[in-house]
Amino acid sequence: MRILTIREVTQYIKELLDADPYLANVWVKGEVTNCHYHPSGHVYLTLKDNVSMLRTVIFRSKARRLNFRLADGMAVVAQGYVSLFEREGQYQLYAAYVEPEGVGVAHLNLEQLKAKLEREGLFDQTRKKALPRFPESIGIVTSPVGAAVKDILAVLGNRWPQARVYIAPVTVQGETAAYEIARGINILSHSGLVDVIIVGRGGGSPEELAAFNSEAVARAVYASKVPVVSAVGHEKDVTVTDLVADKRAATPSVAAEIATPNKMDVVNYVNILEGRLKRAMSAYVRGVKSELRSMARSSVLQRPADFIIARRREQLERLDDRLRRAMRSFWQQRAYRLSVLSGRLEALSPLATLARGYSICYSFRNEVVRSPDDVKPGEDIKIWLSEGGLHCKVTGQMRQSLKSILTNGRRRF
Fold this sequence. Notes:
The chain has helices at residues 6-19, 60-63, 104-119, 147-159, 177-191, 215-223, 240-244, 252-259, 263-296, 299-302, 304-348, 350-355, 402-408, and strands spanning 26-37, 43-48, 53-58, 75-85, 90-100, 137-142, 164-169, 196-201, 228-232, 247-248, 360-363, 380-384, 389-393. The radius of gyration is 58 Å and the shape is elongated. The longest helix is centred in the C-terminal third of the chain and has 45 residues, at 304-348. It is an alpha/beta fold.
């Protein structure tokens, strides 16, 4: 008897599996578990049913072709071949193609759309717009013949009948429904006619609600310039439109209630405000009357002439005091300036010069003599002194200057 190695046994089993034509191309279905996306691009997972488990690998070249992302709990159908992974001695499915099983395709597409829109921020609560408190006009995007529009109009008529209503008629199921609903939202949003939009329909199956799970409608709601209230009557499941809308309502009737105030509540509130205003005005009038009576008892109103004269007298006294101070300051400034100017004038006066021993000499023509050449010998001249003057006759000329005489100490002429 020959004893085999583990490798030999493993290789033998692998050859048997690889040689089986039935296992070369099999389709299996099961629930995904232990799903792992490896950095290399390969996808490792396990398919299971109620009894067994089958390890599965999707190589990178095949994984790139998947148009959805695998996740635990997903029901799928996989096609590929079964072989043995020698290193671990375990057989596994090498999948070449994987698709969601049955209705799982639509559910998967919906979940992946939700994930995409959430990443882009379309579900962000911080960007949702507040509903107007007292809408003057309301837009409705729904079927014009369905029960939803009747329910909405009935509630609006009871709660807020003064609001104008604009209806964008659309189909709410079928191939063109998503396009029509998105177009209706865009038209009302950009019309400038409405303050809020209600979009929706009555209940239905997931297939009938498909338009409200479409990307086109979701982006139209997100781009709306006015708040949007979703009114898809299907409380169990939350549609994409519900997640994007600024407010979600369980039914069309509830949407109409959310979008409008109750007229009777507003009337009651106005009556309460009216009562408060009346009480406030009465209190104000009483206060004013009391103030007027107090003023009427004052001396100002009882003897207005005395009050006015006393105030004018006080003002006059203040003005008189300011005038006196101003005049004293003015004359003090003028006296000081006069003293300064007088001193300057006296310093420049010729009389002051004469008082210091100088004299002024005039010719017979009454011209000041500044040089010996201004007069000739024999001519009469007048010399003015500090006190009086002299009549003199020129007998000769001196060419030497007084400066040189004083400098040399000569006193003789």
